[in-house]
C-alpha cells in the first residue's frame, strides 16, 4: 500500500455503542504521541481513537506509541489508522494472528506480542524494514517464522516459550542481532551458522532438549551471557573458552553438571599411599640418608591438600571437590579442588596444623578451573 491512508478511507466496522462512549476507556497517557489502552477488557480499539479530536489535541497520525496490553482482542482492526506508530505492544490478549495490514506501519521499530495465541506471522511483516526489536514469547509458534528472516535490521528477537523444534541455518542473515532468546522451546540442535552472528551479546538456549551445541559458539566474540540450563548437554566444546567477554554462563540441570559434581568418588588409598602419607608428613632431614632413593622420589611426589587448615598430603588417592569462588569481583567461578580426604571437603582438616610447630617445606597445591554455571 502506497502513501498514508486518511481516516476517511479506513473501513471502520459498526462496533457496539458501548465501545464508543466518549467517557469510557480514557487514554492512560498524558503524552500527545502515546495512546495507552491498558487492561480495559477491549475487543476492539474504540472508534473515537480512529479520528482526530481537536478539542483534546488528539490525532491518530501523531501517535508513536500504542499500548493495547491486557485486553480481550481476538483480532486487531484499524491498525492502519496509526500509520506513524513506532512502538506497538499487544501482549496478553487472545490473538491467534496479527493482521496483514500491520505491514502498513512502516515506521514500526518495536513490536511486542507476548502471551497471545499466535501460530504464525503475516507475510505483510516483510514490509517492516525498520523493525529492530521483536518479542513473541509465550505463543503457539511451532516453527521459526520465515518472515522474521526478512527483518535485516533486527537487533532483539525473543521467541521463548513456544513449540519451535528447529532453528533455520539461514538465521545467519540477521547480522544485526545482539539478543537472541530461544528458551523454553523444543530445540534438539543449533545450526553451526549461529556462530556468524558476530554482534550477538546475549544468547538464551535454556529449557530445550539440546544434547550438543556447535563449536562455532566460540566465534561469538561479543557474547556476554550464555544460558544453557535445563537441557541434556553432556559435553561442551572447548571452543567456548574463546569467549573472553563472557560474564554469565548458566549450565545447571544438565547431565554434564550432574556427572561432574555428583560422581566424585574417592578411590580407597592403597597401603603404600597410607604409609607414604604418614612418612611424608613426619619426615625430617636426618631420615633421608636411611631411605632408599626410589622411596624418596615417591615421597617427593606428594601433593599438598588445598584445605588451608590441613597439612595432609596425597599421592594417587584424592577427593575431588568443587568450590565456587569470586572471580574479578563479577561472578562466581567453580574451581576443582583436590583434597586428601572427604573430611577436608566438609571443612574438617584430616591432619590439623600444629600452630606451635615450625613451617614445613612448601608443597604446591593443585587446582584447576571448570565451568558449571
TrEMBL record:
It comes from the Eukaryota. This is Leucine-rich repeat-containing protein 58. Coiled coil: none annotated. Keywords: Leucine-rich repeat, Repeat. The keyword Repeat applies. It comes from Caenorhabditis briggsae. SMART domains: LRR_SD22, LRR_TYP. Gene3D superfamilies: Ribonuclease Inhibitor.
